[in-house]
From TrEMBL:
Keywords of the record: ATP-binding, Biotin, DNA-binding, Ligase, Nucleotide-binding, Repressor, Transcription, Transcription regulation
Annotated ranges, domain BPL/LPL catalytic: 1-179
Protein's recorded name: Bifunctional ligase/repressor BirA
Residues of the full protein shown: 78 to 319 of 320
EC number, UniProt record: 6.3.4.15
Functional description taken from the UniProt entry: Acts both as a biotin--[acetyl-CoA-carboxylase] ligase and a biotin-operon repressor. In the presence of ATP, BirA activates biotin to form the BirA-biotinyl-5'-adenylate (BirA-bio-5'-AMP or holoBirA) complex. HoloBirA can either transfer the biotinyl moiety to the biotin carboxyl carrier protein (BCCP) subunit of acetyl-CoA carboxylase, or bind to the biotin operator site and inhibit transcription of the operon.
Organism the protein comes from: Marinobacter lacisalsi
Catalytic activity: biotin + L-lysyl-[protein] + ATP = N(6)-biotinyl-L-lysyl-[protein] + AMP + diphosphate + H(+)
Classification lineage: Bacteria, Pseudomonadati, Pseudomonadota, Gammaproteobacteria, Pseudomonadales
GO MF entries: biotin--[biotin carboxyl-carrier protein] ligase activity
Binding site for biotin: 13-15, 37, 41-43, 108
Family per record: Belongs to the biotin--protein ligase family.
Amino acid sequence: EGISLAVHDRIDSTNSEIARRWQQGETGLLVSVADCQEQGRGRRGRPWQSPVGQNLYMSIGATIGRGFTQLEGFSLVVGIALIESLKLPEGAWAGLKWPNDVLVHDRKLAGILIELQGELEGAVRVIVGIGLNVHMKEEASVDQPWTSLGLAVPGQSWRRDRLAAGILNQLVDRLHDFEKSGFAPFSEIWNQYDLFRDKKLRATSGDWSGLGCGVDESGNYLLDTGQGIEKINAGEISLRVA
Ligand code: BTN
């Protein structure tokens, strides 16, 4: 089945648009991109600032031949696909903040919002939403330290069409690998991008604190508490540098 791409000047949220397209009976791999979003959504119910003409807002709707319970680590795989597609220069200080934020010099460059739709005959529909700051303007009001490709890696043209194509290619490949083999083969790759490694961390809920040790073969984050290794489950708790 082919890819069907829809490009919008303005939309509420590209993630919502994928859900609507499925409702309308579209099939295959669906991609929606927009020049701006009026109700861009981030993780944990936060808004995602989506000003016009500056950044990439893109969602991919795909069917993964795995059950709900076999999706552990999926969101980390998307993070790997995203950061690798950008081909950032060595020494750009880029990495992943568990589970899947892309940071450069401790500032957020891109975020990923994954939404799952119903399971049908052992397959799950996933909506992968990617917000990538490309040429974000200084005055934008964002509640956390951020950067953009233009600021972090100047001197490249950073065209949004090429970025979108690169992300899509990389993601489709990685999704196939994940569908076949799950997260385990990705854990070492993910750990190469781990920005929490050897940092003192604490979980925002729960009592855990310790040193960052990377992820295990299921994508759980490992904390060395001094009394043993504690596993932090994706989706349940978030981690901060202490
Ligand atoms: C995060 O909180 O880090 C995730 C941000 C995800 C934003 C993208 S922009 C395209 C897609 N549509 C949305 O409404 N959100 C995602």
